[in-house]
Design a protein that fits this description.
It is a single chain. Helices cover 61% and strands 3% of the residues. The chain is mainly α. The protein is globular and about 80 Å long. The chain starts with 6 loop residues before the first helix and ends with a helix.
Amino acid sequence: MKLSTIALAAASLLLLNSAQAAKPLTQAATSPASHANAQQWDLTRLYADDAKWEAERLAIMAEFPKLKALAGTLGQSAQSLLAGLDSMSAMQRRLSRLQSYSSMKADEDTQITAHQARSQLGDQIYNQYGEAISFVNAEIAAIGRAKVEGFIAAEPGLAKHKQSLQTILRMAEHTLSPKEEALLAAASETLQQPGQIYTLLTNADLPWPKIKIRGKEVVLDQEQYTAYRSDSDPKVRKQVFDAFWPVYKNYERTLGAVYAANLRGTVFNAKARKYPSSVAMAQAEYNIPEAVYLTLVQEANAGLPTLHRYLKLRSKVLGLKQAGYQDMYVPLAKPAGSYTQAEAEALTLKALQPLGADYTQKLGAAFKQNWMHSVPQRGKRSGAYMNGAAYDVHPYLLMSYNGDYNSVSTLAHEWGHAMHTVYSNSQPYETSGYATFIAEIPSTANELLLADYMVANAKTRDEKIFALSQQLENLRSTFFRQAMFAEFELAAHAAVEKGEPVTGESLTKIYLDLLKRYHGDAKGVIKIDELYGIEWAYIPHFYRDFYVYQYATCISAGAFFAEGIANGDSAMLERYFTLLKAGSSADPYPLTRAAGLDLASPEPYRALVRRMNRAMDQLEGLLAQKQ
């Protein structure tokens, strides 16, 4: 996403793109007809061709000496500070566009070496930019709050930089000397390598097994795993799990070493900057109270009886005497059919009507503009994301549209991110980005509005059962599953911080214990085989430290807004759009509080659990009816 600070965030490439971490996307084995209207994005709007990109890369590199020469000038006057910050902002704007092109080209097909090489160059130049301006935070901290605030009052042009400056001043105690900052900036590329290695290993190089399903030979890669794990035949589901997870288990040592390297890099940065913990460092940039993270974990654990109620209901509906983890993805009811992408877009527009005509008109127009790459293809990066970093162009989206309801829901989710970017780009570039803490609110609100629409407009009992079951599954996977991930991250980082050895085996043990507790293994709710403890190695989100918990906080916030807006609360709708348009003009926690909810308190999470119980009440009532 566009950065809320200048030098600190510049050193972290992955913070460039709003909603950049890939959202897990369950894909269905459907006919090519469901792919009708699938799109390929138009990257020529960024650069006409690769040669133009390379020319811009070289031109940018030639500007870095000028940025380095700004060192020592920022405190001379308000005008000097403005000139320096404007120069850096303009450079960052160009870099964001440059890196967007190279990363998205690489994501189209992870098997093309030239694209991967270009993406590395894009990452590299952003790190070089971080090195060039590594003096900024230390220099502004040395200028001091009183003088900086005096400059802001005297120079109106500094208004767009005010939030960044205040953030740097707030974090001054964690800012090192210029030489130390330069050293950390130079190390950033090295510290990003575990994530790069993981992406290539898991998307391009793992040796996927071949299995026969109903006489058809299937290469069980990530895409086919997500397609067949929801198969209606329990024997097929078990076959798929037992063939897929040993691939990760066979690489447990290597994948453990890669993730441990990522953890150690994070802990190194936290110690270097004098933070008490890695999670404290992660929360500090956007000034989010640690109570938000801890309250989420606490309330998710308090809500486990509701999760277990849902899991037992699933087993009853599916007729399973003892459900296993391989039964988690099979739908409770058959969908009415598949959806073309055009049908999915039409459904989304109808479902989002409570957000108003301006929103749906903007969204309907954007659907026609080839902003999205939705065609399934081998080698394409798994999952789904929205890249909103190219401020002067438009958001881009990636997913593999497969025609099932989950694809429809994912489309609504990612376009929630895109529309958030459209509205936040009413801000100046410097404050048009937004924290992940807010980023997942409009996307999950869209998903829930879609889910409510599908329930309300179901034509038959079976359609309503399907819609309710999909809503329940969304709540399970986005709230409880992500909270479980959040606990895993806390434990994994804490192990490194305590100096304990971290291996693939130890990570699997941590994850397996959580998997069993959340799924009620000891209570006979879901049987968790030991093999499935390796699932931690399947989650790319863990390479963005302390990111995933925000899916859980945001679906709680999304449920809050979706319910009020759907009920016609015009004041809430106004506050909601104020939030979308705010960008990073203030810290995210105060922005959400101004919109009407406190994510450091238990209530938003308890409200989501109540919503889940209400949906189960409805579902059980329908199931009790005679057909």
